[in-house]
UniProtKB/TrEMBL annotation:
Family annotation (SUPFAM superfamilies): GTPase activation domain, GAP
Listed InterPro entries: Rho_GTPase_activation_prot, RhoGAP_dom
SMART domains assigned: RhoGAP (SM00324)
CDD domains, sorted: RhoGAP
GO biological process entries: signal transduction
Protein name from the UniProt record: Rho-GAP domain-containing protein
A Pfam family assignment: RhoGAP
Biological source species: Stomoxys calcitrans (Stable fly)
Domain Rho-GAP: 43-234
Annotated GO MF terms: GTPase activator activity
Length: 301
């Protein structure tokens, strides 16, 4: 492989180019000396998330859903293309370069659901699922939120990060459901994704038992509750909300406090460029202030 091709693969290993780089086309059976992180299906999360970090390719898939799904109908409910799903899963497990622009949000959502469904004992773990089933039956909302916060923050850091990205994405989709006419309310999302999060409500046999049906209804209720309370109550802890804001670039409001954890690039050189830079960000600051005031006084911007 030429020096140029080696440089291409080396640059592709960096997260910033994970969706744009391509392999060396000169061989019918190409080798991949600089592979990306592998996203393994059917193994525990600690094997997937090395050094407490979510693999770059998996992170890119979630970010694409976070950006594009809020205005698309039936994401997480409509199935993805089966052939494209198999191809994407193969690339993820092999550590191959993935151009996410080649895959629809429906295919990516279906692959993500399958990844979650394949985690041994589920993303919450058996004890975590039992705790969630107990929490949802409580009559005191404050106690519910406190126990949810305690449960989520007791999980490994990579699990916390994955959960806050997923539920943050669900919240963005649900909050835009009426305005964009997507049909994906928090209840619809709960029905669509609950089996991927709660393995205890999925029957081992071919025929669903009544017990499984009842558990599924409760699991759907749990998912809806967490989605609805994502930003109104401190369920995940400030560090995780800041992680979500930093990774997605979104601004969110948690318990009447705005969280905005991303940095602007350094100012450009040159007088005219600096003036343009200052004008741009002063307008953005004014827009954010107006949004805060509209939220404060119950007005829609």
């Amino acid at each position: 492989m030429s020096t140029w091709a080696e440089r291409v693969h080396r640059r592709a290993a960096d997260f910033s180019s994970v969706v744009t780089s391509c392999g060396h086309p000169g061989s019918s059976a190409p080798t991949y000396p600089y592979r990306l992180e592998k996203v393994k299906f059917g193994v525990s999360l600690d094997e997937v998330c090395k050094n407490d970090n979510i693999p770059g390719p998996l992170l890119v898939l979630i970010l694409k859903l976070n950006k594009e799904s809020p205005n698309r109908r039936d994401v997480f409910r409509a199935p993805g293309h089966q052939g494209a799903m198999k191809k994407l899963i193969h690339f993820l497990q092999a550590g191959r370069l993935v151009n996410v622009d080649n895959y629809s949000v429906y295919t990516i959502a279906s692959v993500l659901k399958k990844f979650l469904r394949k985690i041994p004992n589920g993303i919450f773990g058996r004890s975590g699922e039992n705790e969630l089933f107990a929490i949802i039956e409580l009559s005191n909302e404050a106690e519910q939120n406190e126990r949810l916060h305690k449960l989520f923050t007791s999980l490994p850091k990579y699990t916390q990060h994955l959960l806050v990205l997923l539920f943050g994405t669900f919240r963005v989709i649900a909050s835009n459901a009426d305005h964009a006419g997507t049909g994906m309310t928090s209840e619809a999302l709960g029905v669509s994704v609950a089996p991927s999060f709660f393995q205890s409500c999925v029957s081992d046999g071919k025929t669903a038992r009544m017990e499984d049906v009842l558990k599924f209804k409760v699991a759907t209720k749990i998912m809806k509750y967490i989605i609805d309370k994502f930003a109104t109550h401190d369920l995940f802890g400030r560090d995780n909300y800041e992680y979500y804001a930093r990774v997605t670039g979104r601004i969110l409001k948690v318990q009447d406090e705005w969280i905005c954890s991303f940095q602007y690039p350094p100012p450009p050189r040159g007088k005219l460029a600096q003036q343009k830079y200052a004008l741009q960000h002063s307008l953005e600051a004014e827009k954010t202030w107006l949004q805060c005031q509209c939220e404060r006084w119950g007005l829609r911007p």
